[in-house]
């Protein structure tokens, strides 16, 4: 996983609320393996293309320049609700997205972004509105997401501070896959498990008779 | 010190360690399905075996054909779908995961089979590679959906890093009126409190209505917690829970059952437990609900009127209503019961259990299908039971199609799709744009309401059918 530290890039304002992961990755693309070249077309596929992927909807924001090169999305509330499909994040990554700023996220999607090295940033409703306003006024403007300093820098230089759980932040900053992190705690896991199963033996899987 | 909630008790007993504000939580059961290929690839990448393979259960459901399973996996025509089914068999065999697969006599949906098998239990932490894993919280467990990387992580370590969610209790009070079902309650909760009410929260459903529910009704309520953006839904275990579980294949037996029961009885939230937030829903005023828009919060009583963007509370919501009306091809002021439909789907992890089949069959006796109507049981066990009760015959006599178990037209992954732009009444859980097929228009409702729509060809108040 690539580390995420600081990114200055074109940001696309997207002001729909409650964007679900079915929009981010229509179900029929769930079977595409990571690395499949078609994944580049999958994010918002059915709004960007005809069903067969042949023709483009040139009105849709992610098909319009300069947003085909956007690496940051500034959204609104409840980004990524619905299905747990990680393919939504694979599609975003394949498009080139590296960070999403939103008021709130679907919980599972938030975790999925993290696991794939994309940086989710929670900012207030006001801050998101302010950022989107600036981006609408200055098409193609860049913003900066600085995970080290935990701030977002708007096109006009305004800084918005954000919060992230320290461990998640460290994983992103170091580009660390957390199986490696967790295996450092295998002794804790074994100790916990031994006690858990001796205190509550009924919690072990009982094979059917 | 204040008492503990059901959530607190389970969480606190599963903390392996805490590091920098995150908790390493022990996971007692993991459920995976054909879409979990990435989780197996991760294990291969890090050259690890599943740490506790007996705690992992596989299910063939998302890609299962529901027209026929004759001819086995080689009989599945679509090469990519067949590939997903084959891959699941291969991966689970290679890593030694117990798989309720294509040929298993108890194959079915990963949120229908584990309760039937006694895999879902009170007091455990259960994760599933599917957002509707919240279903199993009906047994008084911490149950939540995870992504493919997270389920790979659980396979490797049997643990997951989590932040402790805050708690919300929704007290559902009163007796269910005639024609009103568990599905109407959860649609009512989401419509009342919004699709965002549960973000980052563990929701406990309590109150007199929940207490009087069967396990299957409780599962329907917890299933759709995720549609309120809740991290998990849960219900305190009680005698209803224990009676349901007793004697199921994976349930504790003999003295272990006695020990388990003694422990489970300590789990319900203490009288003086404090929740971060509490809400109440009175069900006595509740009317059968149907969604009109493109997320599950856009639901109305069947007696309701399609809303106007002018009713929105803010600019964002106004835009959302406009987009939804346009997509759904509806106009403000229309009566819900005026909407004509083209398809009906009765099934999914929300509503495909035996009580759902009975509720739909009861309505099916009152007429003949006016539109193409599918009934897809949630598991082979549900199918056998329904056939033993003669429900399949009632359905086919009414012109409904009785199919093989799977996720079918809820996820629309297995080739079951609406035709372009069709309008469908569905007992599933999501009415997102395109969810059931390209430009498909989904109206979510209970099995009884779906069967009522099937025999009238439009959204219909099931209470008026007598």
Descriptive account of the structure:
The complex is a heterodimer of chains A (209) and B (466). With 209 residues, chain A is an alpha/beta fold. Chain A has a single domain (6-176), classed as Aconitase, domain 4, CATH 3.20.19.10. In chain A, 33% of the residues lie in helices and 14% in strands. In chain A, strands 4-3-2-1-5-6-7 form a seven-stranded mixed beta sheet, sandwiched between helices. In chain A, strand 2 (72-74), helix 3 and strand 3 (99-102) form a beta-alpha-beta unit. The longest helix of chain A is centred in the C-terminal third of the chain and has 14 residues, at 186-199. The termini of chain A are far apart. In chain A, 43% of the residues are buried. The mean pLDDT of chain A is 95. With 466 residues, chain B is of the alpha/beta class. Chain B folds into two domains: 6-162, 2-Layer Sandwich (Aconitase, domain 3); 290-465, Aconitase, domain 3 (2-Layer Sandwich). Chain B has helices spanning 6-12, 37-45, 79-95, 113-117, 148-157, 182-193, 208-211, 215-223, 239-245, 254-264, 315-328, 354-364, 380-388, 391-397, 447-456; strands at residues 15-19, 22-26, 29-33, 56-59, 98-100, 125-128, 142-145, 159-162, 166-173, 201-206, 232-234, 277-282, 289-291, 299-301, 343-346, 372-375, 401-402, 423-426, 441-444. In chain B, a hairpin with a 7-residue loop joins strand 13 (289-291) and strand 14 (299-301). In chain B, helix 2 crosses helix 5 (148-157). In chain B, the strands form five sheets. In chain B, strands 5-4-3-6-7 form a five-stranded parallel beta sheet. A five-stranded parallel beta sheet of chain B has the order 17-16-15-18-19, with helices on one face. Chain B is built from 15 helices and 19 strands. Chains A and B meet through helix 4, helix 6, helix 7 and helix 8 of A and strand 1, strand 2, helix 2, helix 3 and helix 5 of B.
């Amino acid at each position: 996983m690539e580390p995420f530290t600081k990114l200055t890039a074109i940001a696309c304002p997207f002001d729909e609320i409650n964007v679900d992961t079915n929009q981010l990755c229509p179900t029929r693309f769930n079977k595409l393996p990571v690395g499949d070249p078609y994944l580049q077309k999958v994010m918002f596929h059915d709004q960007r293309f005809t069903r067969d992927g042949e023709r483009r909807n040139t009105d849709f924001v992610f098909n319009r320049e300069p947003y085909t090169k956007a690496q940051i999305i500034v959204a609104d509330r409840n980004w990524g609700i619905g299905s747990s499909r990680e393919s939504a994040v694979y599609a975003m990554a394949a498009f080139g997205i590296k960070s999403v700023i939103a008021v709130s996220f679907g919980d599972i999607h938030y975790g999925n972004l993290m696991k794939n090295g994309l940086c989710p940033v929670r900012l207030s409703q006001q801050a998101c509105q302010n950022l989107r306003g600036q981006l609408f006024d200055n098409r193609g403007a860049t913003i900066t997401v600085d995970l080290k300093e935990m701030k977002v820098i708007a096109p006009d230089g305004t800084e918005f501070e954000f919060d992230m759980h320290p461990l998640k932040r460290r994983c992103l900053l170091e580009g660390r896959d957390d199986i490696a992190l967790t295996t450092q705690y295998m002794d804790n896991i074994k100790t916990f498990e031994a006690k858990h199963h001796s205190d509550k033996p009924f919690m072990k899987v009982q094979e059917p008779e | 010190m204040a008492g503990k909630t059901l959530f607190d008790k389970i969480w606190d007993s599963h903390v392996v360690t805490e590091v920098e504000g995150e908790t390493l939580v022990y996971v007692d059961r993991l459920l995976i399905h054909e879409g979990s290929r990435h989780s197996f690839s991760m294990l291969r990448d890090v050259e690890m075996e599943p740490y506790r393979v007996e705690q992992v259960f596989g299910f063939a459901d998302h890609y299962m054909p529901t027209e026929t399973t004759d001819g086995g996996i080689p009989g599945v025509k679509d090469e990519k779908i067949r590939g997903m089914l084959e891959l699941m068999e291969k991966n689970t065999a290679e890593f030694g995961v117990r798989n309720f697969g294509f040929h298993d006599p108890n194959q079915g949906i990963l949120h229908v089979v584990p309760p039937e098998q006694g895999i879902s239990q009170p007091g455990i932490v259960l994760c599933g590679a599917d957002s509707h894993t919240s279903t199993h919280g009906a047994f008084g467990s911490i149950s939540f959906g995870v992504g493919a990387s997270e389920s790979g992580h659980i396979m490797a370590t049997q643990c997951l890093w989590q932040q402790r969610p805050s708690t919300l209790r929704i007290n559902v009070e009163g007796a269910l009126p005639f024609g009103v079902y568990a599905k109407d309650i959860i649609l009512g909760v989401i419509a009342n409190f919004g699709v965002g009410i549960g973000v980052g929260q563990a929701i406990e459903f309590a109150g007199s209505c929940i207490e009087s529910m069967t396990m299957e009704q409780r599962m329907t309520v917890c299933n759709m917690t995720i549609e309120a953006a809740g991290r998990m839904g849960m219900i305190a275990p009680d005698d209803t829970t224990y009676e349901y579980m007793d004697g199921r294949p994976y349930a504790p037996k003999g003295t272990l059952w006695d020990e388990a029961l003694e422990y489970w009885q300590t789990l319900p939230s203490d009288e003086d437990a404090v929740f971060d937030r509490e809400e109440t829903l009175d069900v006595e005023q509740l009317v059968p609900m149907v969604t009109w828009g493109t997320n599950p919060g856009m639901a109305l009583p069947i007696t309701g009127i399609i809303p106007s963007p002018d009713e929105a509370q803010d600019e964002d919501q106004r835009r959302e209503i406009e987009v939804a009306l346009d997509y759904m091809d509806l106009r403000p002021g229309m009566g819900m019961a005026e909407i004509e439909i083209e398809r009906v789907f009765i099934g999914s992890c929300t509503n495909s259990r035996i009580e759902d089949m009975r509720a739909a069959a009861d309505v099916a006796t009152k007429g003949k299908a006016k539109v193409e109507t599918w009934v897809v049981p949630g598991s082979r066990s549900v199918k056998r039971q329904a056939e033993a009760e003669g429900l399949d015959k009632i359905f086919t006599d009414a012109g409904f199609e009785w199919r093989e178990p799977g996720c079918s037209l809820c996820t629309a992954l297995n080739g079951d799709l609406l035709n372009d732009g069709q309008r469908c009444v569905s007992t599933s859980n999501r009415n997102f744009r395109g969810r059931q097929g390209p430009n498909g228009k989904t109206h979510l409702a209970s099995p009884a309401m779906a069967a009522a729509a099937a025999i009238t060809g439009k959204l219909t108040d099931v209470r008026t059918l007598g």
